[in-house]
Amino acid sequence: MTRQLLDYVYLIYFATHIPITLAVDILPLLPTSIIPQPLLALNRFLTATLKDPFMGIGPRSDLVWFRSLLACELFLQLPFFFYAVHALRKRLPQRFLPLLVYGVHVATTMAPVLGTLAFGDIGRSCMQRMMLGAMYVPYLLVPLIMAVDSFIQCTAPKLKSF
User: Fold this and answer.
1) Per-residue pLDDT tens for 80-108?
2) All residues at 6 or more sequence positions from 20 whose CB lies less than 8 Å from its CB, including other chains
3) 8 falls in which pLDDT band (50, 70, 90)?
4) What pLDDT does 12 receive?
5) Calpha distance 143→80 (Å, rounded)
6) Where is 98: in which H helix or E strand?
């Protein structure tokens, strides 16, 4: 892929991830009393339709590990999304190191999510697991490609000097 195409893919990824984080991903962290009714309805529709074991609203002590990942998304990743959109739109040359850190972080956090979907006792059929995997895998692949690409961008000038 060309540099311009990769940057465009990353830009779309981050720009779309801002509303997804705010309207979908952080809802399990919030008390239902403060969630606007349309977002609550959206969450119920998505969890009922996709049978997502992670995104249900309400207390789930067995999912503390997942809720901690959502908290990281809210407090660490969401602010970064705004920087990433800016850096990618302006094609800032220093964008690659932060993109590398983000990509490695997210690829690592997706391992337990996908592992649970594939091998966990979550009471889902094989087809339901595949549908969930299809929804979650892009959130592994894009950051993983971003990490590898950014690592190459960060190290390529140094490698040429050897």
Assistant:
1) 999 999 999 999 999 999 999 999 999 99
2) none
3) very high
4) 98
5) 13
6) helix 96-119
3-state secondary structure at position 135: helix
Task: Check residue 130 and give its pLDDT.
Answer: 93
Please return the burial class of 154, using the count of CB atoms within 10 Å of its CB with bins 0-12, 13-18 and 19+: middle
Q: What is the pTM of this model?
A: 0.91
Q: Tell me, what amino acid is at 77?
A: Q
Q: Which residue has the tokens 């959109």?
A: 85
Cα 67 from Cα 60, distance rounded (Å) = 9
Residue 37: Cβ within 10 Å count: 7
Which pLDDT belongs to residue 83? Answer: 98
Residue 20 is encoded by which pair of tokens?
Answer: 């997804």
| pLDDT-based confidence at residue 111 (cuts at 50, 70, 90) | very high
- What gap in Å lies between CA 89 and CA 8, rounded to an integer? 9
The token pair that represents 92 in the structure block:
């800032």
Q: Look at the chain and count its residues.
A: 162
Distance CA 153, CA 96 (A): 7
Kindly report the number of other CB atoms within 10 A of residue 100's CB atom. Answer: 20
Provide the residue type at 151 as one letter. F
